[in-house]
Every structure is written in C-alpha cells, then in structure tokens.
Amino acid sequence: MTREWLGAVGVVAYLALLIGIAVAARRARQNESPADHFLAGRGLGVFVLFLTLYATTYSGNTLLGYPGEAYRQGFSWVMATGFMLSIIVVFHALAPKLRPIAVREGFVTPGDWVRFRFSGESGSRQLLFGVSLLMAFALASFLFSQLKAMGELAEQFSGGVISYEWSVALLAGMVLFYETVGGMRAVAWTDALQGVLMLVGLAALLQWLLAESGGLGALTSQILEVRPGAADLPDAGEQINWFSTIALMGLASVVYPQAIQRIYAARSGRVLRRSLALMSFMPLATTLVVTLVGLAAIARFQGLGDVEADRVMPLLLGEWARQGLGFSIAAMVVFLGALAAIMSTADSVLLSLGSVAAEDLFGRSHREADTTRFGKRIAAALIVGMALLAIGARDVTLWGVIELKMELLIQSVPVFLIAIHWSRFRAQPALLGLAFGVGIVLAGVAWDSQRVSGVHIGVIGLAANVAIACVGSLFRVPGRRFRGATQFE
What we know:
It is a single chain. The protein is mainly alpha-helical. 76% of the residues lie in helices and 1% in strands. Helix 5 crosses helix 18 and helix 10 crosses helix 17. It has 20 helices and two strands. It has a single domain (3-474), classed as Sodium/glucose cotransporter, CATH 1.20.1730.
C-alpha cells in the first residue's frame, strides 16, 4: 500500500472511531437542555478537561500556522512559546473568580456573564450585543482557519488522493455530525483522544527531524547555511513587536468563548485548578516543538512563498513517509495527531458558535430545550458557509487570519478581566471604549496599517478602550455591587 493510500485509509478509520465516540456520548446525555449539550452537564473531570483545553488551545493555527511563521521569520519565532505561556498566566486572573459565579448563576455562554455583571444598567444590552458580535466573528474566522488547515493537511499527506475540496467537505461534515449528536461530551471525549495523538505525533516528528539532521546543533548549522539571516538578533522594532504579540495573544485567547465555556464545564474548582496547572507545561511540549519543525523546514524546502509556508508540516510528513513502510506508518500517526488537533478546535469552535449565536445574538433562553435545537441549526448553517469560504479562499495565510481575529477579540477583554475585579466598572463607558477600540482596528485594516512602530493596532485599540472605559466609569454613578468570588470553589 502506498503512502498516499495509507493516509486515506487512516483518515477513514479515524473518522469511524469518532462516529463511535459520538454515539456513546449521545447515550450518556442526561437531557436536551443547553447546559447538558453545550457544557456536558458541568461534569468534566481533570483528565478530560485538561486534554480538551489542550487540544482546543493547540489547533490548526499551531500545527500549520506557527511552523509556517517560523519558516518565514527564522529563530526569532521562538517567542511564540512566550505568548502561549502568557495565556496560562492571564487565565489565572479570570478563572478563579469567574467559575464560582458561573456555577452559582447557571451560566452557559460568555454573554451570561455580561448580562449578570451589568444587569439593569443603561447600555448593557448594546454592550452584550457588541461583545457577542466580536466573539461570533472570532469564532467564525477561527472555524474558517481550521477547515482550511484540515483541507491542506489531508490533501498534502494523501498525495491528492483526497483533494483539498473534498477534505474540507468531508471533515467539516464529520465535525458537524459528532458535535450535533453528542454535544460537549462528544467534543471533550474526542478532544481527549486527539490530545494524546497530538502529543505522541509531535514527539515522534521532532525525534525524526533531530536524528536526520544529527542533532540540534547540526540542524542550526544547516539552517544558517541556507539562510544566514535566520538567526539575526532582533532589532528594537522586532523586540517591541514580540511584547505586543505576547499581549495580543495572551489577553485575547483568554476570552475565546470555547475557553470560557470550559471554565463553566469543570466538575469543580479543584478540577479546573489542576487542569490549568497541567496546561502550564504545554507551551514547551507543543509550541516550541512546532517552532523547531518550521525551522527545520528552512533547510529542506527553499523558496516557499508566504502561502506555501503554511504547508511545511505536511511536506515534512510526506518526506518522512517516503523512507519506507515503517516510516509511512509513523508519519501517518503524526498526520492523524495533527488532523485530530485541528478537528478538536473546529468542533469546540462550532459548539460555542452555536450557543453564542442562539443565546447571545438571537436572545434565546438557556433554560429551554428548544434553544439547543436552534443552536444546532445555526451551527449547521455556519459550518456550511465557512466550508465554502475555505474552499474559495485557499490563498489566505493562516497567521494573517489569527492576527485579525485576535485584534478584534481583544477589545472584549475589559468586560471580563476588569469588570470581574473592579465593581465600579460600568456598562456605558465599557460600550464606548469597545466601540473606539474596534474602530481603531478597522481603521488600521482599511489603511493597511496593522502595526505602529511594531505595536499591533489591536493592542493600541485596547489601550484606548481601557482608558475610555475606566475613566468613564470613575465619573458614573456607581450601580449595584455584584456578588463576586475570590477563589476557586
């Protein structure tokens, strides 16, 4: 059996396994309520919660976009490990206070926090709509990038046996199936499988790359021989951009709706705390590894363009598989691990997108079973639309999509991080700050000026957003004092 057909058979076998997991999750459901479908009845334990957080955080952006950016930038991209670590740090500023309130009040979506925190205030409904719209856009663009990554990976590894277009359609259909049938349980259980596959696959790929090149020192020499500037020390502008990227990714990632909903879904505060502790080690085990993968590709594939650079991971897997049957099987395991990671993020995004659209944008109650069915229909329509867009817009770079959605999503940060720590934070100034921040980002995109002296336009927008919201809150008459929490409960 050729490597191409081995890859195709591996995909089919893996998808069959996912169908079995979806059916098992369907049988384990307790009822048809939104809390059961979207949060698995708030019963995720340490092992499953950790792996679903891991598999969702490290996605197609990580496995295709990050190696592509490392290929383009060289050794300076090692800073990606830093901004993945920053996500965990910021998570600890939100999760301990948010989870007890979420459990006490029965939150299902991120918008439930906004409703609760700013209840009765002037401008609260508009603020909820604005935050929800930003989150829906971020989720939709995230779904687009995952579908694009799935198609690229499956086509490259199967040698065209499964085309890009058919890969996107087939895998999108599978994600929709098990998310619709099994809800958060199916998503979390498949994430657990996918997280293990990804860890095993990345470890195997890194071992092969280092063995082939003769070690890290030899690999560095090979890279510098092909591209001497790959190890140049960053200038002041690039260093500023590093810190800007750490702020952008660290803050915006924490308000991803799927991340917030996993805070809600934890069985207990102790489970959430332990899962986050385990997540602290994952940037070294994942982001650093995929950075090395992208750097290794510099010596092996010369002259790739910006879009082609996003394909270095499947190109490396294809090169590995051509060395014999045993290597083909090992490469297939890595390929399935990468595909699994991408699918795990796509399913989480789709689940969150359905709930955010149904409850926060369309105003359906999270206490009604009909909301679950409405969310499923929205999810189906959205994934079809994003799949068609992914097929028609293949030449978009993944990192470009990542930056744009983060620069908009980061404008929601004050409504969560500041509002949960400062009781005087008010809805109207928060809405005005949000509008200014989004306006600055959109102006930067329109004028093709997404960085100012190395600082992302989204970070500049956030600074203006925070200043307006905080100063405005100081001059507003204090509203009701919400009952918060000070620790994991």
